[in-house]
Amino acid sequence: MTRAQIILVSLLCSLSVTFTLRAQELSGWEIEALSDQGGVVYDFQNGIATATNGVLVRYGPAVLTADNVTVNHVTGDVMADGKVRIQRDNQVWASEHIRYNFLTRQLEAQQFRTGMSPMYVAGEGLHGEWTNRYYVATNAVVTTDDIENPTYKLKARRVRILPGNTIEARDAVLYLGDVPVFYLPYYSRKIGPRMNHFNFLPGYRTSFGAYLLSSYHWYLNDKLDTELHLDYRQRRGVGLGPDVNYNYGRWGEGTFKFYYLHDEDPDSDAHGANIPSNRERVYFTYLAQPLTNLSIRSMVRQQGDTNIVRTFFEREYRENPQPSTFVEANKFWDNFSLDTYVQPRLNDFLETVERLPDVRLTGYQQQLGASPLYYGSESSVGYYRRLFAETNSMPTGMDYSAARADTYHQITLPYTFFGWLNVSPRVGGRFTYYSDASGPGSTWEEETRGVFNTGAEASFKASRVWPSVENRFFEVDGLRHILQPSFNYVYVPKPSATPNQLPQFDYVLPSLRLLPIDFPDFNAVDSIDSENVLRLGLRNKLQTKRDGKVANLLNWDLYTDWRLDPRSDQTRFSDVYSDVASWPWSWLRFESLTRYNPENAQLRMAFESATLQPNNTWSWSFAYFYLRDYYSATDPTAWGEGTDNFLSTIFYRFDDNWGFRLTHRYDLRESRLSEQAYSIYRDLRSWTAALTLRLRQDQNGKDDVTVAFVFSIKAFPRFGVGGDASTPRMLWGG
Q: Hey, which CATH number is domain 29-190, 3.10.580.10, 2.60.40.1180, 3.30.300.30, 2.60.450.10?
């Protein structure tokens, strides 16, 4: 090797070592130009990088962009100029000139803007470092309005920012536009979606007079938040109480609500009941899963009187007019589950079957060894009290109670014939023990009952495809028709004890739908009687492709019961049920639920609805509900008085700022408009507002007028998107 070659090799080795050392010093740093004109110059001797004409600097979770940057990758200091943006932990800092340290998170800026939705801050003299966990600024503006000139803002002499946590302001003035409206010596606000905020709902209602429903939502931490209510109703007085939401993971989550009202006009809400002036209600839920196979749930609903929820919490009442109170623990394994259920009565004006307790062991369908047989069971034991409703402290019926033990076992043999016919014969038996009944309504002595059942279920599915069928008008791209007949035969000979010989705790309730006929789906244990019935069903489904996905054009279920040996309280055929759902276009949906009595050629129930939504400008939903009066001394499913109503809801959006919704409910029996509601919506950029007028007329012809104004800051909306459409009562605080 010549001398020149030796010198060249030595020089290359030295450069290699130098670049390796510099690369190690720059480990973790990313510096890149954001444009073709940008460039980065490294001074390895002093550990400094200089970039111009648009640059991005990344170190760890922090990212900085600017026009010009000087980076000291040894100390972590960065000097940035021109359109500077720093993002770390979902929070963004912006300024024209910033000094920032990626290692210590020290930050200095003469003028700045920062925010993490939905809270934003702008100010002067920003400084601080992460060792103190906060930054301080002067002459700052705080707002949730993410625009250059916010509609509302808080101007403060001094602001302290805890990134990702809290903003604290001192000597602050609240402005609406350029008008000062309120002075706050100290103000604190959490950053992020779980922010403390007020809600106000002013309005007028005939039974309330003028009212103001107000609440303050307070987030204590990620596990606990509360909403404090303070309501004033001119005719009814002041109501208040907290709502507490908690979430401790597998140890439990739920809600506690308490509300108290000193009613200044309780007689207007009486409806024949004795209503006190001091009215309260308690609502509590709990759900926990401490183990993967153990769940605990509870609900407590206590009302001081029968009408407090109906009058002041209309939405909750319509969802469940007769709330129950219970505690339930469920433990399950692969093939079994054990359930303990306790249901006391807290509201004596509601009829209740107390279960003190009801313990149930369920054996899921499981194969018996290598045999083709499958076994299922359900056994329960408990003490039950049937307590009838009390009106003005007087019971409406004769209470009674007894202990009961029940066990049911069944064997099935599922088999497929010819590769398409599914048949499942079954045989089962039930034994039930009742203790002597006690109480003023008890007429039953100790009793045992045996029940034998057998039967079979058969079904098959047939389909045909027409791939070449296309129709752009009906949005059809191929067709597939699926046909599924089903037959379910049940035979139960007369039990050793009939229902009138037994106390009734689990009994048949009024129903608009066809009840199950086989066990254990039929769970009215005390009402089991002889059966010899064949359930006939036919399911049709028509499908096509829309947007490359399978879509249903039609779902139609048709079913009825043929009673081969009807009891004295039964007809040969049950009502015929038809359930139809159709989507002739992607923007149009029809639904139909009908119930027809073939014995006397009567339509007993009809629910017909349609929803049109061709675009995001307007939509129209209308429904017709007819229910014939059905009174029967022998049929326990009879529901009594019927109804005949038409409902229409139209929504129209004039532009991006204005919208309108109108709802009408017409009582065809009484030829009156029983309810009408009109809402106009306004998008105020940072706020949304709705003005609603509702008029109702009860059966006595008494009018109830409600006017309400709902406004909500977009940063923390009062209810989710579309919430007012599914539950419009939120618009007037019901």
A: 2.60.450.10
